[in-house]
Amino acid sequence: MLNEWPTDLQQRISDNPKIGYCFDHWVQGKTWAEAGAINFMLEKIASSPAGVSDECRDYGDVIERFETLDRIWADLGKRGSLPSRQELIPGNFREIGGVLIHIGPGGEPIFSGAGCHRFAMALIMGAPFPAQLGCVHESALDQLPEFRSRPCAPIF
Fold first, then answer.
1. Burial 92-105 (b: 16+ CB within 10 A, else e)
2. Which residues 6+ apart lie within 8 Å of 28 measured at CB?
3. Taking burial as the number of CB atoms within 10 A of a residue's CB, which of 32, 87, 137, 149 is the most buried?
4. Pick from 121, 129, 116: which is nearest to 26 by CA?
5. Rounded Cα gap, residues 83 and 38, in angstroms
């Protein structure tokens, strides 16, 4: 049927490796290497046909990326919320490259898998976050205005 929701494509947040290594790093205090993030990224680069993953091509890029994430994390601690992608990249449109959220049947938010690091930061801190809207189930259309003011509840 046209209005069915593809639940077979859904994944638990706790099963997402990027969310997991972010939790291990920022909550458990592990280094990025101890959390498995460095090896995860290097494996993604090696298995990519283009030799690129999350705009990283080599070990140096990976280290720089995680240093940038730590700066964003520190900034989140000071400001209490994530800046929009447009604040970070002038001209960015509708949070492209940020957290992508779908709205499922009944109005439940469903994380798409895009913007993992920013999403993990918001979840860990219980902070509000800007998101790009993805697919919206027809039964949830009337609930869209509520999402503009709904806070993110901490999960850890």
1. eeebeebbbbbbbe
2. 35
3. 32
4. 121
5. 25
Residue 153 pLDDT: 45
Tell me the C-alpha distance between 122 and 49, whole Å: 31
Q: For all residues of the chain together, what is the average pLDDT?
A: 84
107-121 average pLDDT score: 86
Query: Model's pTM, two decimal places?
Result: 0.80
Task: Please choose, from the candidates 89, 92, 46, the residue with its C-alpha nearest in 3D space to the C-alpha of residue 68.
Answer: 89
Sign (positive or negative) of CA dihedral 126, 72, 131, 86: positive
Residue with tokens 């869209």, as numbered in its chain = 144
- Is the pLDDT at 132 greater than 90? The verdict is no
Burial letters 127-137, b for 16+ CB under 10 A, else e: bebbbbeeebb
Q: Residue 2 pLDDT > 60, yes or no?
A: no
Question: Tokens 């979840």 correspond to what residue?
Answer: 123
Distance between CA atoms of residues 72 and 117, nearest Å = 10
User: How do residues 5-22 score in pLDDT, each as one tens digit?
Assistant: 777 666 777 788 999 999
Of the two residues 92 and 105, the one the predictor is more confident about is 105
